[in-house]
Design a protein that fits this description.
This protein is an alpha/beta fold and about 300 residues long. About 55% of the residues lie in helices and about 10% in strands.
Length: about 300
Protein backbone atom coordinates (compact mmCIF):
# COMPACT_ATOMS: atom_id res chain seq x y z
CA UNK A 1 0.00 0.00 0.00
CA UNK A 2 2.81 2.38 0.92
CA UNK A 3 4.64 1.60 -2.36
CA UNK A 4 1.42 2.35 -4.32
CA UNK A 5 1.01 5.67 -2.55
CA UNK A 6 4.66 6.50 -3.19
CA UNK A 7 4.32 5.69 -6.90
CA UNK A 8 1.16 7.83 -7.12
CA UNK A 9 2.91 10.78 -5.43
CA UNK A 10 5.88 10.41 -7.75
CA UNK A 11 3.64 10.40 -10.82
CA UNK A 12 1.80 13.50 -9.64
CA UNK A 13 5.10 15.28 -8.98
CA UNK A 14 6.40 14.46 -12.47
CA UNK A 15 3.12 15.66 -14.03
CA UNK A 16 3.28 18.95 -12.11
CA UNK A 17 6.87 19.57 -13.22
CA UNK A 18 5.92 18.89 -16.83
CA UNK A 19 2.89 21.19 -16.66
CA UNK A 20 4.98 23.96 -15.16
CA UNK A 21 7.57 23.61 -17.90
CA UNK A 22 4.88 23.67 -20.58
CA UNK A 23 3.31 26.79 -19.05
CA UNK A 24 6.67 28.54 -18.93
CA UNK A 25 7.32 27.61 -22.53
CA UNK A 26 3.97 28.95 -23.72
CA UNK A 27 4.38 32.12 -21.69
CA UNK A 28 7.78 32.73 -23.20
CA UNK A 29 6.44 32.37 -26.74
CA UNK A 30 3.44 34.62 -26.12
CA UNK A 31 4.95 37.55 -24.25
CA UNK A 32 8.68 37.47 -24.79
CA UNK A 33 9.57 35.84 -21.48
CA UNK A 34 8.09 35.35 -18.03
CA UNK A 35 10.48 37.92 -16.58
CA UNK A 36 8.91 40.63 -18.77
CA UNK A 37 5.15 40.03 -18.87
CA UNK A 38 4.54 43.34 -20.67
CA UNK A 39 7.32 42.91 -23.22
CA UNK A 40 4.97 42.66 -26.18
CA UNK A 41 2.35 45.17 -25.09
CA UNK A 42 1.86 48.74 -26.27
CA UNK A 43 -0.49 50.81 -24.12
CA UNK A 44 -2.10 53.95 -25.56
CA UNK A 45 -3.96 56.57 -23.56
CA UNK A 46 -6.80 56.72 -26.11
CA UNK A 47 -8.03 54.67 -29.04
CA UNK A 48 -6.82 57.44 -31.36
CA UNK A 49 -3.18 56.81 -30.54
CA UNK A 50 -3.92 53.11 -30.11
CA UNK A 51 -5.05 53.04 -33.73
CA UNK A 52 -1.79 54.66 -34.88
CA UNK A 53 0.16 52.10 -32.86
CA UNK A 54 -1.87 49.23 -34.31
CA UNK A 55 -1.22 50.45 -37.86
CA UNK A 56 2.52 50.27 -37.19
CA UNK A 57 2.48 47.05 -35.14
CA UNK A 58 0.69 45.13 -37.85
CA UNK A 59 -0.54 42.44 -35.48
CA UNK A 60 2.89 41.50 -34.12
CA UNK A 61 2.35 43.41 -30.88
CA UNK A 62 -0.68 43.63 -28.62
CA UNK A 63 -2.04 47.18 -28.40
CA UNK A 64 -4.28 48.21 -25.50
CA UNK A 65 -6.12 51.54 -25.51
CA UNK A 66 -7.25 52.75 -22.09
CA UNK A 67 -9.94 55.23 -23.19
CA UNK A 68 -12.21 53.95 -25.94
CA UNK A 69 -15.50 55.63 -25.09
CA UNK A 70 -16.73 58.92 -26.50
CA UNK A 71 -18.25 59.61 -23.08
CA UNK A 72 -14.88 59.64 -21.28
CA UNK A 73 -13.11 63.01 -21.15
CA UNK A 74 -9.32 62.47 -21.39
CA UNK A 75 -8.70 65.82 -19.69
CA UNK A 76 -10.48 64.90 -16.47
CA UNK A 77 -10.15 61.11 -16.47
CA UNK A 78 -8.56 59.52 -13.40
CA UNK A 79 -6.48 56.40 -14.01
CA UNK A 80 -7.69 53.33 -12.12
CA UNK A 81 -5.23 50.96 -10.42
CA UNK A 82 -5.58 48.58 -13.37
CA UNK A 83 -4.87 51.45 -15.81
CA UNK A 84 -1.74 52.38 -13.86
CA UNK A 85 -0.65 48.73 -13.82
CA UNK A 86 -1.14 48.46 -17.60
CA UNK A 87 1.03 51.54 -18.11
CA UNK A 88 3.80 50.42 -15.80
CA UNK A 89 3.86 46.89 -17.29
CA UNK A 90 3.88 48.06 -20.92
CA UNK A 91 6.85 47.74 -23.21
CA UNK A 92 5.83 51.07 -24.75
CA UNK A 93 3.34 53.77 -23.77
CA UNK A 94 1.92 56.16 -26.39
CA UNK A 95 -0.02 59.18 -25.15
CA UNK A 96 -1.07 62.62 -26.29
CA UNK A 97 0.62 64.88 -23.74
CA UNK A 98 0.25 68.64 -23.59
CA UNK A 99 -2.20 68.39 -20.69
CA UNK A 100 -4.70 66.38 -22.72
CA UNK A 101 -4.25 63.15 -20.74
CA UNK A 102 -2.47 64.30 -17.55
CA UNK A 103 -3.27 61.07 -15.71
CA UNK A 104 -0.64 59.36 -17.89
CA UNK A 105 1.92 62.00 -16.94
CA UNK A 106 1.23 61.32 -13.27
CA UNK A 107 1.85 57.59 -13.66
CA UNK A 108 5.00 58.15 -15.73
CA UNK A 109 6.32 60.68 -13.21
CA UNK A 110 6.39 57.91 -10.63
CA UNK A 111 8.04 55.51 -13.12
CA UNK A 112 10.44 57.61 -15.23
CA UNK A 113 12.17 54.57 -16.77
CA UNK A 114 9.04 53.55 -18.73
CA UNK A 115 9.51 53.63 -22.51
CA UNK A 116 7.01 56.27 -23.66
CA UNK A 117 6.11 58.55 -26.55
CA UNK A 118 4.57 61.97 -25.86
CA UNK A 119 2.90 63.07 -29.12
CA UNK A 120 2.64 66.72 -28.07
CA UNK A 121 6.38 66.91 -27.46
CA UNK A 122 6.91 66.07 -31.14
CA UNK A 123 4.98 69.14 -32.29
CA UNK A 124 8.11 71.28 -32.50
CA UNK A 125 8.12 75.04 -32.64
CA UNK A 126 5.21 77.06 -33.91
CA UNK A 127 5.06 80.43 -35.61
CA UNK A 128 1.49 80.95 -34.44
CA UNK A 129 1.00 83.75 -31.94
CA UNK A 130 -1.14 81.44 -29.81
CA UNK A 131 0.30 78.61 -27.69
CA UNK A 132 0.21 75.24 -29.48
CA UNK A 133 -3.10 73.45 -29.05
CA UNK A 134 -3.03 70.10 -27.25
CA UNK A 135 -5.25 68.28 -29.76
CA UNK A 136 -2.26 67.21 -31.85
CA UNK A 137 -4.03 64.10 -33.18
CA UNK A 138 -5.58 66.48 -35.75
CA UNK A 139 -2.08 67.43 -36.90
CA UNK A 140 -1.24 64.84 -39.55
CA UNK A 141 2.45 65.75 -39.48
CA UNK A 142 2.58 64.91 -35.77
CA UNK A 143 0.72 61.64 -36.36
CA UNK A 144 3.33 60.69 -38.98
CA UNK A 145 6.19 61.42 -36.58
CA UNK A 146 4.48 59.39 -33.86
CA UNK A 147 4.13 56.45 -36.27
CA UNK A 148 7.84 56.59 -37.19
CA UNK A 149 8.81 56.86 -33.52
CA UNK A 150 6.64 53.87 -32.64
CA UNK A 151 8.30 51.89 -35.42
CA UNK A 152 11.78 52.75 -34.10
CA UNK A 153 10.86 51.81 -30.53
CA UNK A 154 9.22 48.54 -31.58
CA UNK A 155 12.26 47.72 -33.73
CA UNK A 156 14.37 47.88 -30.56
CA UNK A 157 11.87 45.81 -28.58
CA UNK A 158 11.25 43.24 -31.32
CA UNK A 159 14.18 43.36 -33.80
CA UNK A 160 12.84 40.38 -35.73
CA UNK A 161 10.02 42.49 -37.17
CA UNK A 162 11.91 45.80 -37.39
CA UNK A 163 11.66 46.05 -41.17
CA UNK A 164 7.92 45.46 -41.13
CA UNK A 165 7.34 48.07 -38.43
CA UNK A 166 9.20 50.66 -40.48
CA UNK A 167 7.40 49.63 -43.68
CA UNK A 168 4.05 50.01 -41.91
CA UNK A 169 5.03 53.45 -40.59
CA UNK A 170 6.02 54.55 -44.09
CA UNK A 171 2.68 53.35 -45.49
CA UNK A 172 0.88 55.22 -42.70
CA UNK A 173 2.82 58.34 -43.61
CA UNK A 174 1.89 58.14 -47.28
CA UNK A 175 -1.79 57.79 -46.40
CA UNK A 176 -1.53 60.74 -44.01
CA UNK A 177 0.13 62.81 -46.76
CA UNK A 178 -2.80 62.11 -49.07
CA UNK A 179 -5.22 63.42 -46.44
CA UNK A 180 -3.00 66.47 -45.89
CA UNK A 181 -3.20 67.15 -49.63
CA UNK A 182 -7.00 67.20 -49.32
CA UNK A 183 -6.68 69.74 -46.49
CA UNK A 184 -4.49 71.97 -48.65
CA UNK A 185 -7.01 71.64 -51.48
CA UNK A 186 -9.61 73.22 -49.18
CA UNK A 187 -7.26 76.16 -48.60
CA UNK A 188 -6.87 76.59 -52.37
CA UNK A 189 -10.54 76.21 -53.25
CA UNK A 190 -11.98 78.20 -50.33
CA UNK A 191 -9.28 80.73 -49.44
CA UNK A 192 -9.78 82.35 -46.02
CA UNK A 193 -13.30 80.99 -45.70
CA UNK A 194 -14.77 81.66 -42.26
CA UNK A 195 -16.37 79.03 -40.03
CA UNK A 196 -17.77 78.66 -36.53
CA UNK A 197 -16.43 75.76 -34.44
CA UNK A 198 -18.00 74.92 -31.11
CA UNK A 199 -14.82 73.28 -29.75
CA UNK A 200 -11.07 73.97 -30.01
CA UNK A 201 -10.35 70.38 -31.06
CA UNK A 202 -10.40 71.51 -34.72
CA UNK A 203 -7.49 73.95 -34.40
CA UNK A 204 -4.99 72.00 -36.54
CA UNK A 205 -7.62 70.96 -39.08
CA UNK A 206 -8.67 74.56 -39.64
CA UNK A 207 -5.06 75.76 -39.79
CA UNK A 208 -4.11 73.15 -42.40
CA UNK A 209 -7.26 73.89 -44.42
CA UNK A 210 -6.71 77.66 -44.39
CA UNK A 211 -10.08 78.27 -42.73
CA UNK A 212 -10.66 81.13 -40.30
CA UNK A 213 -12.39 80.34 -37.03
CA UNK A 214 -14.71 83.24 -36.22
CA UNK A 215 -15.90 81.76 -32.92
CA UNK A 216 -15.35 84.18 -30.00
CA UNK A 217 -12.52 82.98 -27.75
CA UNK A 218 -14.72 83.25 -24.65
CA UNK A 219 -17.31 81.00 -26.31
CA UNK A 220 -14.63 78.38 -27.03
CA UNK A 221 -13.27 78.53 -23.48
CA UNK A 222 -16.74 78.07 -22.01
CA UNK A 223 -17.38 75.11 -24.31
CA UNK A 224 -14.11 73.46 -23.37
CA UNK A 225 -14.92 73.88 -19.67
CA UNK A 226 -18.45 72.46 -20.15
CA UNK A 227 -19.97 75.83 -19.27
CA UNK A 228 -22.73 77.75 -21.01
CA UNK A 229 -21.42 80.63 -23.10
CA UNK A 230 -22.21 84.16 -22.03
CA UNK A 231 -25.38 85.54 -23.67
CA UNK A 232 -23.33 88.10 -25.61
CA UNK A 233 -21.03 85.38 -27.02
CA UNK A 234 -23.98 83.19 -27.95
CA UNK A 235 -25.64 86.15 -29.67
CA UNK A 236 -22.44 86.89 -31.59
CA UNK A 237 -22.23 83.31 -32.90
CA UNK A 238 -25.91 83.25 -33.83
CA UNK A 239 -25.45 86.53 -35.67
CA UNK A 240 -22.60 85.02 -37.73
CA UNK A 241 -24.75 82.03 -38.64
CA UNK A 242 -28.03 83.82 -39.28
CA UNK A 243 -26.26 86.46 -41.35
CA UNK A 244 -24.52 83.71 -43.37
CA UNK A 245 -21.15 85.29 -42.64
CA UNK A 246 -19.61 81.84 -42.14
CA UNK A 247 -19.26 79.03 -44.65
CA UNK A 248 -19.93 76.18 -42.20
CA UNK A 249 -20.66 75.24 -38.59
CA UNK A 250 -18.38 72.58 -37.09
CA UNK A 251 -19.76 70.64 -34.13
CA UNK A 252 -18.70 67.64 -32.07
CA UNK A 253 -21.67 65.22 -31.99
CA UNK A 254 -20.11 63.41 -29.03
CA UNK A 255 -20.71 66.42 -26.77
CA UNK A 256 -24.22 67.49 -27.68
CA UNK A 257 -25.60 70.30 -25.49
CA UNK A 258 -28.60 72.66 -25.66
CA UNK A 259 -26.18 75.31 -26.97
CA UNK A 260 -24.90 73.16 -29.86
CA UNK A 261 -28.46 72.07 -30.61
CA UNK A 262 -29.56 75.71 -30.85
CA UNK A 263 -26.65 76.51 -33.17
CA UNK A 264 -27.46 73.59 -35.45
CA UNK A 265 -31.11 74.65 -35.61
CA UNK A 266 -30.04 78.20 -36.53
CA UNK A 267 -27.67 76.84 -39.19
CA UNK A 268 -30.44 74.77 -40.75
CA UNK A 269 -32.75 77.79 -40.88
CA UNK A 270 -30.06 79.96 -42.46
CA UNK A 271 -28.84 77.30 -44.89
CA UNK A 272 -25.36 77.15 -43.36
CA UNK A 273 -23.94 73.61 -43.72
CA UNK A 274 -23.07 71.68 -40.58
CA UNK A 275 -20.19 69.21 -40.43
CA UNK A 276 -19.27 66.87 -37.58
CA UNK A 277 -15.79 66.80 -36.09
CA UNK A 278 -15.28 64.24 -33.34
CA UNK A 279 -12.63 64.03 -30.64
CA UNK A 280 -12.41 60.23 -30.53
CA UNK A 281 -12.69 57.49 -33.11
CA UNK A 282 -16.22 56.72 -34.30
CA UNK A 283 -17.08 53.05 -33.77
CA UNK A 284 -15.33 50.63 -36.10
CA UNK A 285 -13.05 53.31 -37.58
CA UNK A 286 -9.27 53.54 -37.64
CA UNK A 287 -7.25 56.76 -37.41
CA UNK A 288 -6.64 57.29 -41.11
CA UNK A 289 -10.25 56.54 -42.10
CA UNK A 290 -11.47 58.92 -39.40
CA UNK A 291 -9.25 61.77 -40.58
CA UNK A 292 -10.05 61.12 -44.24
CA UNK A 293 -13.79 61.07 -43.58
CA UNK A 294 -13.58 64.27 -41.54
CA UNK A 295 -11.79 66.17 -44.31
CA UNK A 296 -14.17 64.80 -46.95
CA UNK A 297 -17.21 65.82 -44.91
CA UNK A 298 -15.79 69.30 -44.37
CA UNK A 299 -15.15 69.64 -48.11
CA UNK A 300 -18.69 68.51 -48.91
CA UNK A 301 -20.11 71.03 -46.43
CA UNK A 302 -18.15 73.89 -47.98
CA UNK A 303 -19.28 72.82 -51.46
CA UNK A 304 -22.92 72.76 -50.43
CA UNK A 305 -22.60 76.19 -48.86
CA UNK A 306 -21.55 77.66 -52.21
CA UNK A 307 -24.74 76.63 -54.00
Amino acid sequence: MQRSVARWRSAVFVWLIGAAALTASLTGCGTGGAEHPGATTVVASTDVWGSVASAVAGGHVAVKSILTSANADPHSYAASPSDAAAITDAALVVYNGGGYDPWVDRVLAAHPAINSIDAYSLLGTTTDKHPPDEHVFYDLAVAKIVAVTIADRLASIDPGHAAEYRTNAAAFGRAADAIANSERAIATTYPAAAVVATEPVVYYLLTASGLINRTPVAFTVASENDDDPAPADMAAVLDLIEGRRVAALLINPQTSTPTTNDLQAAARRAGVPVTEVTETLPGGTDYLTWQRNTVNQLTAALQSGRR
